[in-house]
From TrEMBL:
Belongs to the tectonic family. Pfam families: DUF1619_N, TCTN_DUF1619. Part of the tectonic-like complex (also named B9 complex). The lineage of its organism: Eukaryota, Metazoa, Chordata, Craniata, Vertebrata. GO terms for biological process: cilium assembly; protein localization to ciliary transition zone. The gene is Tctn1. Residues 14-119 form the Tectonic-1-3 N-terminal domain. It comes from the Eukaryota. This is TECT1 protein. Keywords: Cilium biogenesis/degradation, Glycoprotein, Signal. PANTHER family: TECTONIC FAMILY MEMBER, TECTONIC-1. GO terms for cellular component: MKS complex.
Length: 546
């Protein structure tokens, strides 16, 4: 059968009439001077105006298209007249609002205060992770919609709840208080980690579904939304935790252990669940695994703390540990890498490993100090640079007259920078390889020391130190600012070696350091501070308001 054409969604008429708006109308039932949109002003008043204090009145500037009221004065007329025009104004921005058809969003309504009588009702309405606020005025042709749904290819998109055969994949989390709520859906590609409190008792532990492994694996996941293809959740690992906190990994991970009472203890209750979802680039889930931490409680226990986590990995790719989501977390490694030819940041190879492939997680590293402080013995020893931690390391280099300049210089460069020093640093802790703008290039500087050391060659420049400065700022909301790296500078300092008598030796120090600088609180050299305006408002600026 032929599908009927779907009608486009159309919103109601605009709720704001710019012809009736007047921001300069402050006096009640009186004409405000030079306020050309004041309805209290007459033609005689307009003839005395010198200018229009508000020449244009618009609604929401974020709209794609809207009406604009233009006010001006015709000073050549006798007497001068006010000119009013109503025009269509187009927003040149790509990101704009098509229509403001949700009237409730245009005004503030007094929220309903929770009381002992309505608390349960409000919790049921707003306690879940999402609730509908869509107005009834968005009417659509349901017949045309159902016909289009039959031919639509479904796929999971970012943030969409992961569907199961009965509802959605649960990831319990605290809502109003610290108690667990099972109404929190797991969003696709949204890495989450939650902790909450669950009320338990030994007598009823076998009847509490949320402490049983079955509760988290008995419902199959839909490979794509609204499909009949299902993916079973397999048990990847089971760890048993004793009452004193000791954990033991079980060999048979496929064994289903249900809560049971044994010697006045309730054993095999779920203390933690970790989901791992494997998906394709087409938005289809192909594998789902769960790891469990099981524990035991005694009669004195009235509640337990449960932890839940979910992570995602694209098929045929290697997972890379994150250092924050999105901003960096203090103490986690700074992520780095380099660009290969043909693609800005290849996903398959992500980033190069540093010295001797010890940096398999694409981290920015620094020279690791050794107990004997011998630079030649410390080659290949690297340690990750942790965000927010200022670090310094070093070693001592014993130079003889027989050493050649060029091999010695290359050896020291490999010692300070590593064999494949990265070119870029991730600005956020969760920056992805394909997001080119989320990577900050490393700026390289070179300086020379004034001091000199004696050697056999007449003149030789060797690197003696690597100093890295990481500038970061607080990004986003003031309530929950995120750490973002904005600049990385690597400075190599060289010194001059001069002739050393045969048979003589000299020891010189080689140092490497990293400093983190917060530039969000005050302006640093090379960064412009926000401009300040030193102006005084007129004494009647807020009249008639106090």
């Amino acid at each position: 059968r032929a599908a009927a054409p779907a009608r486009p969604r159309s919103g109601p008429a605009p709720v704001t009439d710019v012809a009736e708006l007047c921001v300069c109308d402050l006096l009640v039932a009186q004409c405000d001077v030079n306020c050309c949109c004041d309805p209290d002003c007459s033609a005689a008043d307009f003839s005395l105006f010198t200018t229009c204090s508000v020449p244009i009145v618009t609604g929401d500037s974020r709209l794609c298209s809207q009406k604009a009221a233009i006010y001006s004065l015709d000073v050549e007329a006798n007497p001068p007249e006010r000119i009013f025009k109503l025009i269509d104004q187009v927003n040149p921005s790509v990101f704009c609002i098509h229509a403001t058809n949700y009237k409730q969003a245009l005004s503030f309504s007094s929220p309903e205060m929770p009381t002992s009588e309505n608390f349960d009702q409000l919790l049921k309405q707003f306690g879940s992770a999402s609730f509908s606020a869509e107005p009834d005025s968005w009417n659509m042709n349901t017949d045309a919609q159902s016909l289009s749904d039959e031919n639509e290819t479904y796929r999971y998109e970012y943030g969409v709840p992961i569907q199961t055969v009965d509802a959605f994949l649960r990831l319990p989390s605290p809502v109003v208080s610290s108690w667990c709520s099972d109404a929190n859906p797991a969003g696709f590609l949204v890495n989450q980690a939650t902790k909450c409190i669950r009320s338990v008792s030994v007598e009823k532990c076998g009847n509490i579904q949320a402490v049983s492994m079955l509760f988290y694996i008995n419902s199959s996941i839909l490979a794509v939304p609204k499909s009949s293809q299902m993916v079973n959740i397999t048990v990847q690992a089971v760890v048993v935790q004793s009452l004193n906190g000791m954990r033991t990994l079980l060999n048979g991970s496929d064994v289903l252990r249900l809560p049971m009472i044994l010697d006045e203890l309730c054993i095999n209750i779920v203390l933690g669940v970790s989901y791992h979802i494997t998906y394709t680039d087409a938005g289809e889930i192909i594998e789902a695994a769960a790891s469990f931490v099981l524990g035991a409680i005694n009669k004195e226990a009235l509640s337990i703390q449960q932890s839940f986590e979910i992570s995602f990995t694209q098929v045929n790719t290697k997972p890379v540990p994150l250092s924050g989501n999105p901003g960096y977390v203090v103490g986690l490694p700074v992520r780095a890498g380099f660009r290969l030819q043909g693609y800005p940041f290849p996903i398959e190879i992500l980033f190069a490993a540093l010295v001797l492939n010890t940096n398999k997680y694409s981290q920015l590293t620094i020279l690791q100090s050794t107990s004997n402080q011998d630079c030649l013995a410390a080659q290949g020893a690297r340690t990750p640079i942790l965000f927010g931690y200022n670090m310094i390391s070093g070693c001592k280099l014993r130079i003889t007259a027989a050493m050649k300049c060029q091999p010695l210089t290359q050896t020291l460069l490999d010692l300070l920078k590593g064999q494949s020093f990265p070119e870029y640093v991730a600005s956020f802790g969760n920056s992805q390889a394909q997001d080119v703008l989320d990577w900050v290039p490393i700026t390289h500087l070179y300086t020379s020391e004034q001091r000199t050391y004696n050697t056999l060659q007449s003149s030789c420049q060797i690197p003696v130190s690597l100093e890295m400065e990481v500038k970061w700022t607080k990004y986003g909301s003031l309530v929950n600012p995120q750490a973002r790296i904005v600049n990385v500078t690597a400075t190599i300092t060289t010194t001059t070696l001069k002739q050393l008598p045969s048979g003589r030796e000299r020891t010189i120090p080689i140092t490497s350091s990293v400093v983190f600088t917060d530039i969000s609180s005050s302006a640093e050299p090379g960064y412009k501070a926000w401009p300040t305006i030193n102006a005084k408002l007129p004494f009647d600026f807020f009249f008639p308001f106090v």
